[in-house]
Structures are given as structure tokens and as C-alpha cells.
Amino acid sequence: MSAISGRALHYVFKIGDRAKNAFFFRQILGMTVLRHEEFKEGCDAACNGPYDNRWSKTMVGYGPESSHFVIELTYNYGVSSYELGNDFGGVTIHSKDILSRAAEHSYPVTQVAGKAGSLLTSPDGYKFYVIDQASASSDPVQSVELNVSNLQNSRKYWHDLLQLKVLEESEASVRLTYDEQQASLEITQISEPINRAKAYGRIAFAIPAAQQPPLQDAVKAAGGAILTPLITLDTPGKATVSVVILADPDGHEICFVDEEGFGQLSQVESDGDKRLDRYIEKDPFQPK
């Protein structure tokens, strides 16, 4: 397999209350809605988890998906909460504005021993570590942390098989990326068994379509888990993409989507923000 030319795209969170999450991501973290999509039935690649029902996807971030690492908020109609596991470590953001907004809205901020930055927790329990300084790059999102049970096994998987480059490492963690200008992935070993529970997410990368079959073949030859073999996915009124869904040694889900199709699919929607609000108003458990 030739060298992979990859780009970090987003991390997926399942959310239980769109109104509370819209407030947190927009008013506290200061992200904007980049696009909002509604689906009538479950995803063939389990994009919304193991749910065959109506669901929505909202992409939020600090800039276009073509140049920023963003968050995908997945909402399954009728599901108000998810059991949180210990698989997700957190997102690290550099910002001079978030903590002041949190204080303005009396939003809780805490400190965690051994962690840089101040901790804010989303309505569903996902962790965001805010370092109170301006970002050195155009994207305030610096890294995404996943917890693992065996650091060396995970390093071999992410570095040797998926070909992410090692940026730095210690006895407890390894930070990797496809490109130093992108948000990085940090894998951290924890002592207890990994529990993905019900709230487990998925990290996504884009690679050229021509590299998807060789990657899938390499993972299969190495005995790695392929959750969804290479498949095409449609979004009503938008571009079709091809994806292959993998799982690392601890079951962390990884989506590799074709760069060509995703570039068309992920165009910023000028009305995404208003469309999200319109659907939130219809949510059955929202105050009237």
C-alpha cells in the first residue's frame, strides 16, 4: 500500500437534547453551524449508531470543513440520553474567549490534575479542555484524545497500519497526525478496561478514493476489524460519498471517506443555523 494522504475531519458525538447542545456549542464554545441534515431512516454505515430511525446530523466548528476539524452532533429522534463510557478523553481547544463566555453564562469550569487547560463538559458529558490562549494555527481545535488499553498495540495500529505520523510520545500517550497543520489525535493509556457504553463516537478522516480499497485490504490482511466494508452513502440533494468504517484494537470507530465526494458534500450551508433552530422547536421534549 502506498503512503496514505489523509486529512482529519471530525469527531462524532451522540446528543440527547439539541437545544442544550446548540447553546453549549454556539454560545459557550463559540462554534457555528456549518450544515444541518435530516434523515428519515438509519444509516447503512451506522453513522447514527445502531438505530434504525429518524435522525439528524449537525456539523459545528470554527470554520469550513475543508480547513477545520469540526464536531458532528448526531441526534436520534426519541433517544434523550446515552450511557457514557470511558473511551473518549476530550477535545483540546485554544481560545481567549471561551472561558469568559462560560463565566458570563455561569457555566461550570473545573480543573483536572495532570491536564492542561480548564475543563468544560457538554450537556451529554463530553469533555473539552480549553487552553486560555490564542491558537497558533487558523483552527482553534488542537487535538482529540481517545483512551486505549494497550498503548503499544494502539501505536502500532494507528502509526504502522493507518500511517499517521508520530508527533510526540511518552510512557502514557502518543500524539499522531497525517499533517502537522491539522488537529492531532492523542491516544492515552488508562488502567481500567475500555468501556464504549452507548455514547461511543467515531473519528473521521478523508483520503483519496483510490486509496480506500488498498487501505481496506491492508487492514483485512493485518486482521484488523472492518465494521462496514467500502460502501457508498447518499445524502438527499447532496453528493454521494464512499466510506469504509474500521475499528482500532479497543473498538474506537474510524471512518475513512473519499476526499473527492466529501469535498462536495461538506460545503457550508448559509441556512444551516436557522434550519437547526427550526427543527429544535419541533422537538417533543422542548419547553413550549
TrEMBL record:
<comment type="similarity">
    <text>Belongs to the glyoxalase I family.</text>
</comment>
<dbReference type="InterPro" id="IPR029068">
    <property type="entry name" value="Glyas_Bleomycin-R_OHBP_Dase"/>
</dbReference>
<dbReference type="Pfam" id="PF21701">
    <property type="entry name" value="GLOD4_C"/>
</dbReference>
<dbReference type="InterPro" id="IPR043194">
    <property type="entry name" value="GLOD4_C"/>
</dbReference>
<dbReference type="InterPro" id="IPR043193">
    <property type="entry name" value="GLOD4"/>
</dbReference>
<keyword id="KW-0677">Repeat</keyword>
<feature type="domain" description="VOC">
    <location>
        <begin position="140"/>
        <end position="259"/>
    </location>
</feature>
<dbReference type="InterPro" id="IPR037523">
    <property type="entry name" value="VOC_core"/>
</dbReference>
<protein>
    <submittedName>
        <fullName>Glyoxalase domain-containing protein 4</fullName>
    </submittedName>
</protein>
<feature type="domain" description="VOC">
    <location>
        <begin position="7"/>
        <end position="133"/>
    </location>
</feature>
